[in-house]
């Protein structure tokens, strides 16, 4: 039999989750230490950084276990955006070339197209 056992796949997810959470915790504490030095050695930036890192790690673990893998979520999101952009590109009108844009600009400046061109003036 080829393939992974479900226990192995679950173990890999747990390992990835723990590594990810630990690394985000350490980075959060590191940023907190740097910030604590800036604000004259107060402890709250370290605690805040640790909390933010832990929260981000827990959030990523939820994504990992609920929707397969965080990388799969990103891939699916990017694929959806590509399809949307391709669809919108098909709907777009053809773009004007430079000559027609210049002609339209000159007409606007001349007052032919734009403001008050629909008003007719009569002699009194």
UniProtKB/TrEMBL annotation:
Primary localization class, coarse: mitochondrion
The protein, known as: MICOS complex subunit MIC10
Function of the protein: Component of the MICOS complex, a large protein complex of the mitochondrial inner membrane that plays crucial roles in the maintenance of crista junctions, inner membrane architecture, and formation of contact sites to the outer membrane.
UniProt keyword list: Membrane, Mitochondrion, Mitochondrion inner membrane, Transmembrane, Transmembrane helix
Residue ranges of coiled coil: none
Membrane-spanning intervals of the chain: 21-41
Lineage: Eukaryota, Metazoa, Spiralia, Lophotrochozoa, Mollusca
Keyword hit for Cytoplasm: no
